[in-house]
Specification:
The chain is of the alpha+beta class. The protein contains twelve helices and 16 strands. The chain has a single domain (about 15-395), classed as Alpha-Beta Complex (Cathepsin B, Chain A). It has helices spanning about 65-80, 90-105, 120-130, 140-145, 150-165, 175-185, 205-210, 250-260, 295-300, 315-325, 370-375, 390-395, and strands at about 15-20, 25-30, 35, 45-50, 195, 200, 215-220, 230-235, 245, 265-270, 280, 285, 330-340, 345-350, 365-370, 375-380.
């Protein structure tokens, strides 16, 4: 999910900071009140369901949205379970994923994608294989502004040279140590153990203490080029690890999302954000009936000035957009609730990782159900968030 670098949104919502047994923790809730898009004054959103979420972060100049969104999702999971909402390290996930990605790249002789982008299941795999740590144990370098352009280029150039096997027909026995040393230089060495609130942990023991279990989470999508109710390897370039998602009909993917929200589960959301109808600046994502190419300039200028009629999204329309590459796997975000506009139309409330500046909504925006159905590439949910009938079809034990 390689994302675009943007600077947006200043958020005014209540932030409750408190100290409990795990140290300084954080939580935030949007008040149950109308939230008006003050930029254009046209949308008025009334919260329908609100779920606890952690403060908005900024991934800055990095394509690590998949890590920021998954860790945000897990932080909300902690709150749902009645646990402290610990600030989880995003770069711990990124650093460990690069290690796995580098080895896969070499094994595949450079034929898979190598870069900052990954998928939700990669973050969950790090939870499974490496554990999790708080931000304090593995903070972002460079003053909290992840800048990975240089490291991506250096690491890929290094791996490409290693694959050439310049010293003969075999790989150098030292290549992995050299690769890990470069990762440590850019990201920092991951801790074997750390102290948190006066107690010593390993990354795995900390995950266990928090009650985070990688096996509790499942990825879902909706595509007709694979059988429904089976798993398949989603064909997007950032799926370097060939992770599988469950396939369900479109109405059931939405049903899963609605069921999750209604039962206080949040949802990690991967989507195309390169559409004209996606306007983080204006705080909304919609699907106008007309294509941008068919709009007048006046229609383009007023597209986000007030709620409008949207395109009816079908399974066939969604599939066609994926097949012709107009739906691409751009960005990972975090669905934290739902709301309705002044006309009663339903939206999902989404937390982003592009900072809190330049807009009154402060990193939060609203996605119409039409946009969700049309441009979602996958979602990640707790398996208990699945409706029982769908879980049964997927053969998932809850």
């Amino acid at each position: 999910m390689i994302t675009f670098v943007k600077f947006f949104f200043t958020m005014k919502h209540n932030l409750l900071s408190f100290i409990i047994s795990f140290g300084i923790l954080f939580s935030s809730n949007v008040k149950s009140q109308n939230i008006t898009n003050k930029k254009n004054g046209g949308f008025i959103f009334t919260p329908e369901k609100e779920i606890s979420y952690s403060p908005v972060k900024n991934q800055y100049k990095s394509g690590t949205c998949w890590s920021f969104s998954t860790q945000s999702f897990l932080e909300s999971e902690l709150a749902r379970m009645g646990k402290p909402m610990v600030d989880l390290s995003d770069m711990f996930v990124v650093r460990n994923t690069y290690s796995q990605k580098g080895e896969k790249y070499v094994r595949m002789q450079g034929t898979i994608n190598f870069g900052a982008g990954s998928e939700f299941h990669d973050a969950i795999n790090v939870l499974r294989t490496n554990g999790v740590v708080p931000e304090s144990a593995y903070p972002i370098k460079n003053g909290g502004k992840p800048e990975l352009t240089e490291s991506d280029k250096v690491l890929k150039a290094m791996l490409d040279e290693i694959i050439k096997r310049p010293n003969g027909d075999k790989l150098s026995p030292n290549w992995k140590d050299a690769f890990e040393a470069v990762l440590d230089a850019y990201y920092g060495k991951t801790p074997d153990s750390f102290e948190y609130n006066g107690k010593k942990y390993t990354p795995k023991s900390f995950a266990a203490e928090l009650g985070l279990n990688a096996d509790d989470y499942v990825a879902i999508g909706s595509y007709t080029h694979h059988p429904f109710y089976e798993q398949f390897i989603i064909e997007v370039s950032d799926n370097w690890s060939w992770g599988k998602i469950y396939n369900v009909p479109l109405d059931e993917m939405q049903k899963i999302t609605d069921n999750a929200i209604n039962n206080n589960f949040t949802v990690a959301w991967a989507s195309d954000v390169s559409e004209f109808g996606f306007s983080f600046k204006n705080g909304v994502a919609i699907v106008p009936v007309k294509d941008k190419a068919d709009m007048t300039q006046a229609e383009k200028d007023s597209a986000f000035s007030k709620p409008m009629e949207e395109l009816n999204i079908t399974q066939e329309l969604r599939q066609a957009a994926f097949d012709n590459l107009s739906t691409t796997d751009d960005h990972g975000m975090h669905i934290i609730g739902s709301a309705k506009d002044q006309n009663g139309k339903r939206y999902y409330t989404v937390k982003n990782s592009w900072g809190t500046e330049n807009n009154d909504l402060g990193g939060i925006f609203y996605v119409s159900t039409a946009y969700f159905k049309y441009k979602t590439t996958s979602i990640l949910v707790h398996k208990k968030a699945l409706p029982a009938d769908i879980a049964k079809k997927l053969n998932i034990k809850q």
